[in-house]
Specification:
single chain, 336 residues, seven-stranded mixed β-sheet, 10 helices
């Protein structure tokens, strides 16, 4: 089969196509999946650069894939041949608290990922996808969508009438808009691009803030909420934006720390104490959460926003496009 491999962590030069890799065979309680689509996350950029951690090389990259089951290993009871499935980010986190070894069992890191024509998955590391979604749309769900769902719904318990600030317009942020609106919340969206803000408005964002023209976007959030602040912040920037998020959230509010796109920085802990803030680290989610999210996605007939679909042969171009940060929503590689 054909598969991409990160042989050495030196960026795109280390990402190589192996046109003659041995096709895996499903072992006990494993399913063999014909991959039809995979989607990129910022984590995947860290893997090819060697900055992500929890990675063994060589490795087939990427964790988010969708396809159909083509063979069953002994002992499989949850799937049949022909089922349309998506991979789960963690192959062993089925429910409850995140296990201590979760990161050692994540696809595209310690385990081979999905940027291949065929993959073997544990039956507990796959999940049926909503009927109304294409493979390309379903491939966007395992990491970005579930992260947003875990933050706002599973952890945050967001309620109708509450307010949410969402930073940026990448995959997690776009799903955050959708899930917040699904639950009746008011969304404040930040971006450096007016065009992206308008697209975010099309997803349901209520209040738009361009942080390029308004660098003190936290003060603008306070102004628009009569000095109170928002109930929730989906924080994908990291330490360099976290203090602004802490300023923009109301006393007793919640911040979901998801990424570090804005880089490292310093944090003043006094504001956490003074405002009694709740900071939650969110690391994707469990298979049980994925099931709950898929039920909501099916009921709402939600269609994930896709920026662009690349062919399998264009995988490197997909990485380049993703690295520019100019995309809105998800970037998908069709594995046909």
């Amino acid at each position: 089969m054909k598969a991409y491999e990160v042989r050495e962590p030196n960026g795109l030069d280390g990402l190589m196509l192996n046109a003659d890799r041995r096709q895996p065979e499903p072992l006990h309680e494993q399913i063999l999946v014909r991959v039809r689509a995979a989607s990129l996350n910022y984590r995947d950029q860290g893997v090819i650069k060697g900055s992500y951690g929890y990675t063994k090389f060589p490795v087939i990259p990427m964790c988010d894939g969708a396809g159909e089951v083509v063979a069953l290993g002994p002992g499989v009871t949850q799937f049949k041949v022909g089922d349309r499935i998506a991979s789960t980010f963690f192959q062993t986190w089925t429910g409850g608290r995140i296990p201590p070894d979760a990161s050692k069992n994540s696809l595209g890191g310690q385990l081979d990922g999905v940027l291949a024509e065929y993959i073997a998955l544990s039956q507990n590391g796959a999940i049926r996808i909503p009927d109304h979604l294409s493979f390309e749309e379903a491939a966007t769900l395992p990491c970005a969508a579930l992260t947003a769902w875990n933050a706002l719904i599973e952890t945050g318990g967001i309620k109708s009438g509450e307010t949410v600030a969402i930073l940026g317009t990448g995959g997690v942020s776009c799903f955050g808009i959708a899930f917040a609106k699904m639950h009746g919340a008011c969304v404040f969206l930040t971006s450096s691009s007016d065009a992206k803000l308008e697209r975010g408005k099309g997803l349901g964002a209520d209040s738009l803030i361009n942080y390029k023209s308004l660098p003190d976007w936290d003060k603008e959030v306070l102004r628009r909420t009569d000095g109170v602040g928002v109930d929730h912040v989906v924080e994908v920037g990291g330490a360099n934006t976290l203090e602004k998020s802490m300023n923009a959230v109301r006393p007793g509010g919640s911040i979901y720390v998801i990424g570090s796109l804005a880089g490292a920085g310093t944090i003043n802990p006094r504001i956490i104490n003074r405002k009694e803030l709740h900071l939650h680290g969110v690391h994707v989610g469990s298979r049980e959460m994925f099931n709950a999210m898929n039920r909501a996605v099916s009921l709402a007939r939600l269609r994930p926003p896709i920026d662009r679909i690349f062919s399998f042969a264009e995988a490197k171009q997909a990485y380049v496009h993703h690295a520019t940060g100019g995309h809105f929503g998800k970037i998908v590689i069709a594995v046909q």
